[in-house]
Design a protein that fits this description.
Elements: H1 2-17, H2 24-98, H3 107-117, H4 128-135, H5 145-155, H6 162-182, H7 188-196, H8 198-205, H9 211-234
Helix pairs in contact: 1-2, 2-3, 2-8, 2-9, 5-9
Length: 240
Amino acid sequence: MAELEVANHAKQALKIVTDQQHPFWHKLRELLFEVSIIIFAVSISIWMHGIGERHHEQEQVKTFLLGLKRDLQGDLNTINNVVKFHKEMDASFIYLRSLNPADPIDAEKFDAAYVKILSSTMFRPEVSRYEGFKSSGKLINIDNDDLVEKILSYYHTSWPIPQEQYWLSRRNKMISYIESIEEKGEDRAEQYKLITSAKGKYLLKSMPTNNELYGVYSDFAGMGKEIIQQIDQMYPEAAK
């Protein structure tokens, strides 16, 4: 509609310029009137386009942030499961270290704890949605600067973190140690002897998850909760 108005008034302006019947000052007045209408129409068109573009950008932001909220909720669930698993492993390591070589083997309990040595689970955030939105350059469309800063801090953490690497290095030493026996066959008596040996107890002593790693998981979960809270404040109708 605006384009049609501009075209009509442009034709009228051209008609005024080529008019030979009216004096110069009359034509100038009419020409200025037509030009002012054209400028106004163009300005309105640009303004309306800007509003439409802005609305489209904010709809994209909303879709992204609500999707990010679901990703973060999944991350929080994963962190809870990882922490739960590590605590179960810690209990198994403490139990194995308490065993006495001369004590009879509680086969069921020993086997369950021994398997934990071979188990491992670590937290890795879901990043595909964030990476896609960031690579498109659309993070700047989020008006809440504090929220953007929190999102950047959350997703710019490099995994595995040092605390994880430290724990994994200790676990790998333990794995290497037990593999030297298991090459001869997975015999429970040999496994028990391995675990209750001086070296086995020494390695088990360093196996429980350190408080620093638990602290990192707790802090990371806190960051995720803060982001979710701010997203809920922006879109209360979608808060659950």
